[in-house]
Design brief:
The complex is a heterotrimer.
Chain A lengths: L8 H11 L4 E7 L2 E6 L4 H11 L4 E9 L7 E9 L4 E9 L5 E3 L8 H12 L2 E3 L42
Parallel strand pairs in A: 2-5, 6-7
Antiparallel strand pairs in A: 1-2, 3-4, 4-5
Chain B lengths: L15 H13 L16 E6 L11 E7 L2 E8 L7 H5 L8 H5 L6 H16 L5 H30 L3 H21 L8 E2 L2 E2 L5 H25 L3 H7 L7 H6 L5 H5 L6 H4 L20 H25 L17 H6 L1 H12 L9 E7 L4 E8 L5 E7 L1 H13 L7 H8 L3 H4 L2
Antiparallel strand pairs in B: 1-2, 2-3, 4-5, 6-7, 7-8
Chain C lengths: L1 H5 L4 H15 L4 E5 L2 H10 L22 E5 L4 H13 L5 E5 H6 L20 E3 L6 H16 L9
Parallel strand pairs in C: 1-2, 2-3, 3-4
Helix pairs in contact in C: 2-6, 3-6
Chain lengths: 170, 430, 160
Amino acid sequence: MKLNLTPELKPVIDGLAETFGDQLVDIWQSTGHTFVRIVPDSITSVCRYLHDEHRFIYLSDLFGADRFTTEERFEVIYNLLSLRDRHRLFIKTWLEEENPVVDSVVEVWPAANWFEREVFDMFGVRFNNHPDLRRIYMPEDYEYYPLRKEFPLLGVPGSIDLPGTTPDME
Amino acid sequence: MKVTDINSKSHPTFFKEHQQKLYQSLEDKHTTIETIDDSDPLTARMILNMGPQHPATHGVLRLVLQLRGESIEKAKIDVGYLHRGVEKIAENKTYQEFMPYTDRMDYLSPYSNNVALCTAVEKIANVEVPERAHYIRMIGCELARISSHLLWLGTMVMDAGAVSFFIWTFREREKIYDIMDQLAGHRFTVSHSRIGGVHNDITPAAMGLIREFIETFPDELNDYHKLLDRNRIFFERNENVGVLSPENALRYGATGPMLRASGYALDFRKLEPYARYDDVEFEVPTRIEGDNLARYFVRMEEMHESIRILEQCLEKLPKGPVRTDNAKQAYPSKDEVYYSMEGMIHDFMMTDTGICPPEGAESYHAVEGPKGELGYYIQSDGTGHPWRLKINSPSFTNLQLLEIILDGEMVADTVVIIGGVDPVMGEADK
Amino acid sequence: MGIESALGEGYLTTRIDTLVNWARSNAAWPMPMGLACCAIEMMAFAGPKYDVSRFGSEVFRFSPRQSDVMIVAGWCSYKMSHAIRRIWDQMPDPKWCIAMGACASTGGMHRCYGVVQGVDNFLPVDAYISGCPPRPDAVIHALMDIQEKIRNDHSVMLDT
């Protein structure tokens, strides 16, 4: 693939391709940013490699997206920033719809804690070894995952209750 | 008396499972405070709920604290009381229609949110923005930064006890509101910045108000310095309170003034410059202590730097159009719309379909908002609606830190620490 | 409530009514339920330029037990609605409610799963203010409308 890599980013991509050869599924660029797609099982090892070897010590963002395809529906995207070399890299994994599970990267970047909770809340993707996987925006009693494409914008009527119009009789 | 089963002692009346899981996670949270002998009743543990409605939490933030006497053993934060699902709304609106929603996210500095969305869309759709628009955006962003920091100052110092500061900073904010009124037509949730430029040019009246503000504001700022910089009470309330070490700041993803007060000079205006920030000179204030006082100094110095940037922008403001001419990318100006057929058709197409970035394109752009890195990640599917729009909000990232900072502090310092972290719940809860 | 039940209807009670209503309307202490951006306009409404304490709302009591008017400013999410209702129940009678802004009145621009489409789904609202966010002048107008409502209220002759 012809990539237009800056001299700082080239050793990172080469190092990744060398160390994780077959687990690196795809590399592409879009609007100047580089995206690397890897197999879900190797996410912690890739992240630890990037953290230790290439000093991607700052996790800017971690979020999910719904591709709405039959195969590999959900994706989890990691937005990494290397402060020493001042460049950004995106890591993606694609997960199945049936049981979307991936390892948590909380040991590598503790900042991932709340981000992964948000992905769980909005998409239903579970993270192994997460210290505290609870919903973050919707209450725990809620049964749906709002950012999935089939969830209607106005919500499901009756899925969450409102207080009554008379004072509580306690 | 050990709190063995916390859920048997709490009787929630609504969202029962939510309350139970929250208290259970507080119970399970690892803490490094040594256990003291439980036989003394004066060292009893208590669970304190600083609920969503509280005068001093900035917005609707809920804290559940486990206290040992006066000191906090562990703290858990519950956000989501202001969640709307803005990212889901974005999937159903065109990029320009989404602009007012960005205003209401960090509602203390709405201009920077607008600029963040505009630059992100301009990046993915490859839109050229004229020079004058860049400078007007910078002026708006810096005014928004000053406005946000003034509100932070007013509320943090009011929470620490000095109520009159609130009134003084609000008087200054009213001046900024007047400028925004003249410039954009609305006091604060302006949607002045548009994709492809800005909505309208700065009128001479607005220019006069901005110049007057730049001249009088540094004196006010000096007054605040005189009152707080050597104030013993302020120091004792803020020194060594809420300390965040530099390693923790980077590991937990702190951003904005929180990170700069802990020693790391990371500013996206310098790291990935946008809107001609590389043409103006300014410094990035940093401190190494990492306590609340350091955050205070960093933000005050940022206000000084903002005034400096504003002066330079007004000097360098070039002449020219304020929005790009390309009809597929930006709204035409109103006189074209009213007086020519193509203008009307373009306006209609922009409102109906909007700007269409290439299919499969994805991009990320971050600006330096007053709270930190405000970034927009857009995935486009070729239509005028984004497929996925993710907002990387700084307050959400900074609130995670609060769980780390609060462990070990005194409960009376909680309010000042929250003030120092300066979260905006509209942004944190999206 | 004692004075209302002890006296019946008549000239005396109407005069007492006017007196009581005059006192109540000119001391309507708000309980700000400042949730979102409208809260900032509410702070500006309490601030130096659009000073509301000259209308009698001298102190913004954050304690529900000590306030008369609840100003709901900002969109109300489903998660927050129970907390707001609880606080409303804790306010003693007589109490009034102002729904400030488009989001509190009808859900505003947020027509989605997380936002209650109007606070009047669970609160008895007395005055609605439109605007996003409304100028502080509009909030003062709503407060004056509430004062008008209080002045026309039957405080003493109310059969409680």
